[in-house]
Specification:
There is one protein chain. The protein is α/β, with parallel strands linked by helices. The protein has a single domain, classed as Formyl transferase, N-terminal domain (Rossmann fold, 3-Layer(aba) Sandwich). 34% of the residues lie in helices and 23% in strands. The chain has a seven-stranded mixed beta sheet with strand order 3-2-1-4-5-6-7, sandwiched between helices. The protein has a two-stranded antiparallel ribbon with strand order 8-9. Strand 4, helix 4 and strand 5 form a beta-alpha-beta unit. Helix 1 runs parallel beside helix 6. The longest helix has 24 residues. The two termini are 30 Å apart. It binds 5-O-phosphono-beta-D-ribofuranosylamine.
Length: 204
């Protein structure tokens, strides 16, 4: 399954996927293309270093549908079947999402539905929660609200600031995301309404 990764920034999750592909932990998924909506970000350099084709599709100067059409054109040219949003800081509309129903996932640094949107670790600290974590979910047109595939909890300590909590969450995120991408590529994730079913999710 050819996977496209959409990014906007540092790209540590992209790096986790690149590393997993190198060591065979993504099979049968292969990383076909990386697209950033921002030029010059570290994620693009990571893709380049791994010889994965990388493109910039900027959102600022064009209408939303034009931006989404440009994204889709690059993805289609690389025969992409599934998409990972890995720190991609734009909300996508059904105009784009309808091409990839149940084949587009996002990783978010909180236990959704708590703390959607930007700065989730800072939101968690400000709220005083004792547990946060990472959520990987299918993408719909809502903000971080699509069906939940997998979650891992992470403790919040009294002396945490947002950066410390974000780092603790990301170390779990970097393990979980490649695992979920592999399961998606293996066809192990089925979505029934809001419920995502798959192997290893039953008590018995
Ligand atoms: C991650 O924490 C992800 O959950 C959120 O944005 C961050 C991206 O980090 N959506 P990176 O660019 O992968 O380092």
């Amino acid at each position: 399954m050819k996977v496209g990764v959409l990014v906007s920034g540092t790209g540590t999750n992209l790096q986790a996927l690149l590393d997993a592909e190198t060591t065979g932990r993504l099979e049968p998924a292969t990383l076909a293309v990386v697209i950033s909506n921002k030029p010059g970000v570290q994620a693009l350099a990571r893709a380049g270093a791994a010889n994965v084709p990388a493109f910039v599709v900027e959102h600022a100067a064009v209408a939303r549908e034009v931006f989404e059409d440009q994204l889709h054109a690059v993805l289609a040219a690389h025969h992409v079947e599934a998409i990972v949003l890995a720190g991609f800081m734009r909300v996508l509309t059904p105009h784009f999402l309808d091409h990839y129903r149940d084949r587009i996932i996002n990783t978010h640094p909180s236990l959704l539905p708590a703390f959607p949107g930007a700065n989730a670790a800072a939101q968690a600290i400000a709220h005083g929660v004792k547990i946060s974590g990472v959520t990987i979910h299918f993408v719909d047109a809502s903000l971080d609200g699509g069906p939940i595939i997998e979650q891992v909890a992470v403790p919040v300590f009294d002396d945490d600031d947002a950066a410390a909590l974000q780092a603790r969450i990301q170390s779990e995120e970097h393990k979980l995301l490649p695992d979920v991408v592999q399961r998606l590529a293996r066809g192990e994730l089925s979505c029934q309404g809001r419920k995502v079913r798959g192997p290893g999710r039953r008590a018995e």
